[in-house]
Amino acid sequence: MGNREDLIAGATRCLYEKGYARTTARDIASAAGVSLAAIGYHFGSTKALLNEAIFKAMEEWGEEVERALAAVRDADPAERFEAVWSRVTESFTTRRALWAVQFEVVTQLDQFPGVRDHLLAGYDRARLGLAELFGTPGSAELGAFYQTLLAGMLVQWLTDPGRAPTGHDLAGSIRKVAAVLEG
Fold first, then answer.
1. Can you give the residue ranges of every domain in the chain?
2. Is the torsion defined by CA of 91, 94, 96, 102 positive or negative?
3. Measured distance CA(25)–CA(37) in Å, rounded
4. Does the N-terminal or the C-terminal CB of the chain have fewer CB atoms within 10 Å?
């Protein structure tokens, strides 16, 4: 790895250990084994590096979920929906630090100037990625729905994982909502 990749890896470790607000440039440089100046050279600022690390971690998460779902790619939509949500909720355990950082950033956007714009720029990609993951490629509208559901699931899981719905629960609830809407 070069300095740029080392910095992203170091920033990711610091995010998971200290969170967004408490991570300093010195923390990252130390974790990456590079000079402080390398942050400015490669990213312009510590916040830009932290943002890059978050987005890279989310992309890796998406790829991980996609690989895990290869077996259900040809499943009917309901089975796929349930399988995707089961895998997503599993990731709340295996990647808890990533989700905690995401929640920290979203709840404190006003304290991180410039982060909101960076986050919003990634939303369109995230929505399309979620739509693809659920078998509805190109649907930003459904991607926004999945993103909303993901945020709600995350809040429930972070506060009370034992009572958060499972993939199976969500699939059943969606069926009930659809039945109500169809009247």
1. 3-182
2. negative
3. 9
4. C
pLDDT, mean of residues 80-95: 88
Cα–Cα distance measured from residue 27 to residue 78, given in angstroms and rounded to the nearest whole number: 45
DSSP string across the chain: --HHHHHHHHHHHHHHHH-STT--HHHHHHHHTS-THHHHHHHSSHHHHHHHHHHHHHHHHHHHHHHHTGGGTTS-HHHHHHHHHHHHHHHHHHTHHHHHHHHHHHHTGGGSTTHHHHHHHHHHHHHHHHHHHTT-TT-HHHHHHHHHHHHHHHHHHHH-GGGS--HHHHHHHHHHHHHHHH-
* pLDDT at res. 113: 67
**pTM for this predicted structure:** 0.78
| CATH fold for the domain made of 3-182 | Tetracycline Repressor; domain 2 (1.10.357)
Length of the chain, in residues: 183
Q: Measured at the alpha carbon of residue 104, what is the angle toward residues 2 and 102, in degrees to the nearest 5?
A: 55
